[in-house]
Design brief:
- By secondary structure, the protein is mainly alpha-helical.
- It contains 6 helices and no strands.
- Helix 2 runs parallel beside helix 4 and helix 3 packs antiparallel against helix 4.
- The longest helix is centred in the last third of the chain and has 23 residues.
- It is globular, with a radius of gyration of 15 Å.
């Protein structure tokens, strides 16, 4: 495991704890990571976690499209969308589906915890918590989709 994986996992965990405490993902956290991920592409031809440039660009687009309906229906905030897009830029499209699954499970666990212990459920949960913890889990465990990229 290299410094890249550890750095991305720490960044994602930092975003998760910030969203949990303040229910806000600042632009400095999300957009700077997105810019870093995109800046790596012309310099190295790969994203920070090693996926080819085509996977990183597809990751940004796929992350945007995956959360766009939830954003339109006000189920997630714009910070969540930018956070997920940054994950796509840093890790490529290969990490998005596992992160998305982990985020759903983590968010569902938060809802169940509140329902069991308080008897109430909030109207809206900070989805960045699930995304951040899911990203850290996926990156540190190397759980990715095995895709082949002809454009690399």
């Amino acid at each position: 495991m290299g410094w890249e994986e550890i750095g991305v996992a720490l960044w994602a965990a930092w975003g998760a704890q910030g969203d949990y405490r303040r229910q806000r993902l600042p632009n400095g956290l999300t957009l700077s990571a997105l810019a870093l991920g995109l800046a790596m592409l012309p310099l190295t031809g790969r994203c920070l976690l090693g996926a080819p440039w085509s996977a990183a660009l597809l990751g940004v687009a796929a992350a945007f499209l995956a959360l766009l309906p939830a954003y339109v229906w006000r189920l997630v905030a714009a910070g969540d969308v930018k956070f997920f897009m940054a994950m796509g830029a840093l890790g490529g499209v290969d990490v998005l589906f596992p992160i998305y699954l982990a985020a759903g499970v983590i968010t569902l666990a938060l809802v169940a915890r509140d329902r069991l212990f308080t008897g109430r459920v909030q109207r809206q949960y900070p989805y960045g918590v699930g995304l951040g913890l899911g990203c850290a889990l996926v990156v540190l465990s190397h759980w990715r989709l095995a895709l082949h990229w002809p454009l690399s």
